[in-house]
Amino acid sequence: SQQGEEDPQALSIQEGENATMNCSYKTSINNLQWYRQNSGRGLVHLILIRSNEREKHSGRLRVTLDTSKKSSSLLITASRAADTASYFCATDATTDSWGKLQFGAGTQVVVTP
Amino acid sequence: ETGVTQSPTHLIKTRGQQVTLRCSSQSGHNTVSWYQQALGQGPQFIFQYYREEENGRGNFPPRFSGLQFPNYSSELNVNALELDDSALYLCASSSRTANTEAFFGQGTRLTVV
Q1: CB-CB contact of B74 with B46 (8 Å)
Q2: CB atoms B104 and A104 under 8 Å
């Protein structure tokens, strides 16, 4: 079973718009990471947020974490066609599972020019 | 570029055969984790190697085995291949000591016919 679940499963927006996707997870975590995957290739690391952090920014990306609700969100601002990809959240649970990431099924984002 | 390289890129094998996939970790990283990603799904954790020893395994049968070498590179071996083993196999390297995020290779696409 997968720890995280992304929502929505798919998202279609136009260039310049913002894209928001959410991730919910089941157990306590050390940290949560967001990854991007283009066309079934390798995963590109986007951002890591630790369990004691609530918000983090990196360029056009903004990630929030609410440990009380066991949820996270990824916001991509001013989207570009190159942002078209699948986005995954991955959690690193606390119980001696460092680095053993559990992924959701991902959100497929399509950005049209 | 993450510095994590996997070989081969693509592979076609026949049911019942054995396969070995290889991963070179990023310089300075001492931990390698392997994941299986079926089409349309998120990656599933197979196992992790730290200092040449298996350090945790997901829900995969014993015919999935691995090795880590003194230079921290790693192999994933799958015996008695089944059609359901067709997937993208990803390796991720990280540093347990430095508590870094995981960086993924481009993956090996395995097709079992």
Answers
A1: no
A2: no
Q: Are B42 and A105 in contact (CB under 8 A)?
A: yes
E strand spans, chain B: 5-7, 10-13, 19-24, 31-37, 44-50, 53-57, 64-68, 74-78, 87-94, 103-104, 108-112
The predicted pLDDT at position B66 comes to 96
Residue predicted with more confidence, B36 or B99: B36
**Burial of residue B25 (number of CB atoms within 10 Å: 0-12, 13-18, 19+):** buried
Nearest CA in chain A to B90: A42
Residue-level pLDDT, tens digit, chain A, 113 residues: 456 788 899 999 999 999 999 999 998 888 899 999 998 788 999 999 999 999 999 999 999 999 999 999 999 999 999 999 999 999 987 656 667 889 989 999 999 99
Q: Euclidean distance between the first and final Cα of chain A, in Å?
A: 36
Tokens 């196999």, located at residue: B89
d(CA B6, CA B24): 6
Question: Strand, helix or coil at B83?
Answer: helix
According to DSSP, residue A102 is labeled E
Interface contact A59, partner B, CB < 8 A = no
Tokens of B60: 């995969």
B2 and A2 in contact by Cβ < 8 A?
Answer: no
Distance of residue B36 Cα from the nearest chain A Cα, in angstroms: 11
Q: Name the residue among A86, A111, A113, A82 with its Cα closest to residue A19.
A: A111
